[in-house]
Amino acid sequence: MSRTLLSHFAILSNSSRLLSLTISRGRGRSQARVLNRVLPTLHVAAAGFRCNCTVSAPESEVSGRSASLKKKRVVSGVQPTGSVHLGNYLGAIKNWVLLQDTYETLFFIADLHAITLPYDAPQLAQATRNTAAIYLACGVDTSKASVFVQSHVHAHLELMWLLCSDTPTGWLNRMIQFKEKSRKAGDENVGAALLTYPVLMAADILLYQSDFVPVGEDQMQHLELTRELAEKMNHLYGGRKWKKLGGKGGALFKVPEALIQPAGARVMSLTDGLSKMSKSAPSDMSRINLLDPKDVIANKIKRCKTDSPPGLEFDNPERPECNNLLSIYQLVTGWTKEEVALECQNMNWGTFKTILTDALVNHLSPIQNRYEEIIADPAYLDQILSDGAAKAAELAESTLTNIYQAKGFLRRSSIV
What we know:
GO molecular function, one term: ATP binding
Number of helices: 14
Family: Belongs to the class-I aminoacyl-tRNA synthetase family.
Strand content: 5-15%
Radius of gyration: 23 Å
Strand order of the largest sheet: 1-3-4
Subcellular location: Mitochondrion
EC number: 6.1.1.2
Oligomer: single chain
Catalytic activity: tRNA(Trp) + L-tryptophan + ATP = L-tryptophyl-tRNA(Trp) + AMP + diphosphate + H(+)
Order of helices and strands: EEEEEHEEHEHEHHHHEHHEHHHHH
């Protein structure tokens, strides 16, 4: 990515201390900010997330009681195409469970993103339901988080179109994932949606005035485009221009910040330690699907790519597969990197593959059992998705109304 976000995120519990926070963004280094307020301890920081953000001081009550915080909002989604695999789970969904206690969270099934490349139309609806069930089976709690289907909230597509009119095609042409996917598919076979889907991604985020977006390093370029679009729209249509059209003025969109996934959560392919585990990889042997039965998991681990040097070790650039398999073991056991390194340093691959298989099966079995319970009760799942979409649509409508107004559209009469 051409623009790198770097930050130092410190948490203080003593109100008399000063917090000096320096933030570097793509356009250069900002002024150091000194905050003389108490900052609450964020659970997510302890979970290993890195926050590339400008920290706001909490709102305090006039009565002098302890400061009360309105929860910051986090939005994220996963496509329903293909089977949800270990990389989706460890890189995103598992971390959502950590976020839902600290933030106001909205998690959606990104079915609109699923059609940017060729897909199986008859399977899309069932895949969407299956993905929603997996969210819940993995521990997403609907008393704390909203779970909904992207296409059930029409504002996603409306905002995308409103943003498209102000998105330079040059911004989209430089997206790395578009270049890679269009090269594989061939220019004559690539639909316009593949070019414009980063604008839909921006709409997904900006629609809900999101404060933070959980992203991996490979998605930072798309988040930076979202930030640029938010700033551009605020400049073109916000502030006094919006106020003259009857609006409240100020910013139309929050400029979202990144929550970088914990180190090691980028799970790589079982057949190539230099490639990310992917639903689109032609071989199913390259990934562990969350619903794979025990014998399938055992077979995939038994046949996965390894190397010949003795012993096992992290972070050797000459041994990407070794690093990947150790990282998976660390993530599913919950052990520290040091504990795994010590246990496995003298192991051979035969021994390690056996304990890795057992660890994966033990970790995934409760998820698979809960998934079967949820998918067997379609009325329950339908109600969850309906409630989630209703809450999301309510939040989205305010943003959509504001942007229509700021862009000068004639307001629809309340009398039909």
